[in-house]
Design brief:
The protein is mostly helical. It is 73% helix and 0% strand. The protein is globular.
């Protein structure tokens, strides 16, 4: 049965990938004339393993109070999560994918760790997204003083909530504890992990999450530069951050998320005078490097998986 599931997953990823590439005519976007600086594109590809190395370090640290993993075991867990997560909305399947490579007695207790890790990384995307995309937001949306004031209040509230969630999880863990009283929320007791997070661990996870964000950020800029985009850096950084900020709220499965990402990128880059052709090509390259290549790696690991 497990072998059948593995084969179905493999066929599924090949079919959907083929559909996305052909149906949306991404192949037609590629030509020798589009790639102006191939070395920058190669640099973007070479940075990708560093991104997942950092995530392996972070995942290893997050799980430390529950189970001790080697860096390689942590990497396998992450890659499996990437593969399974591409089929599910909001990458929910990534949770299951990460857990299947853990020791059986650590899988359920690790739910809280997975939740915390995801919240911090997504929180970084939102907080830094608001900050770095300010130039774009200010010029495109904040025409009045009232809108500027509302934006400032929203960003301040988001920042305060993020700090509380990241550094004081033991204080909001009781919320999950109270949920265990109800029949349909008994699962909440698995989040007792949150009270194990100290300031040192939270700071370490936060720093690595920020490093990963800036790798994504740098990759996007490298791709745009490799395609000959020559707008000022402040425009590039603001546009990239705005796109990542908006994308963080899209609940589509990553394999289909390319559609939403494409539309967002076209709208944002059009504001800066970048053609839809270049916007679509940059989106596809980034999607392929950061999602499809790791997912293929995850599938290879998944094929070797044997239930404990």
């Amino acid at each position: 049965m497990l072998t059948f599931i593995k084969v179905v997953f493999g066929i599924g990823i090949c079919f959907v990938l083929f559909f996305q590439i052909t149906e949306n005519e991404f192949i037609s976007l590629f030509s020798g004339d589009n790639i102006k600086q191939p070395l920058l594109l190669i640099s973007c590809l070479l940075i990708m393993p560093l991104n997942w190395f950092l995530e392996a370090l972070k995942w290893k640290s997050v799980l430390k109070p529950i189970v001790r993993l080697s860096l390689y075991e942590s990497f396998k867990s992450i890659m499996s999560g990437v593969f399974i997560g591409i089929f599910t909305p909001a990458r929910i399947g990534e949770y299951a994918g990460r857990l299947i490579n853990l020791p059986e007695n650590a899988r359920i207790p690790s739910l809280g760790a997975t939740f915390y890790n995801s919240i911090v990384q997504n929180g970084i995307h939102v907080v830094l997204g608001f900050g770095l995309s300010y130039y774009f937001i200010k010029n495109s949306l904040l025409e009045t003083t009232e809108k500027m004031l509302l934006f400032t209040i929203i960003v301040s509230c988001v920042f305060v909530c993020f700090v509380v969630i990241t550094f004081l999880p033991k204080y909001w863990q009781p919320v999950f504890q109270k949920l265990t009283r109800y029949k349909f929320t008994k699962w909440a007791h698995h989040f007792e992990y949150l009270k194990l997070i100290d300031t040192k661990t939270a700071s370490y996870i936060l720093i690595i999450s920020m490093m990963r964000y800036f790798i994504y950020f740098g990759q996007y800029i490298l791709i745009l530069k490799s395609l000959g985009v020559k707008i000022p850096f402040i425009d590039l950084s603001s546009g990239v951050s705005a796109i990542y900020l908006i994308q963080s709220g899209i609940p589509l499965p990553p394999l289909l998320n390319i559609l939403g990402r494409s539309e967002i990128s076209v709208v944002v880059w059009n504001y800066f005078g970048i053609s839809a052709h270049i916007a679509l090509l940059a989106t596809f390259i980034l999607w392929f490097i950061n999602l499809i290549i790791p997912a293929i790696t995850g599938y290879i690991i998944f094929l070797k998986f044997k239930p404990a």
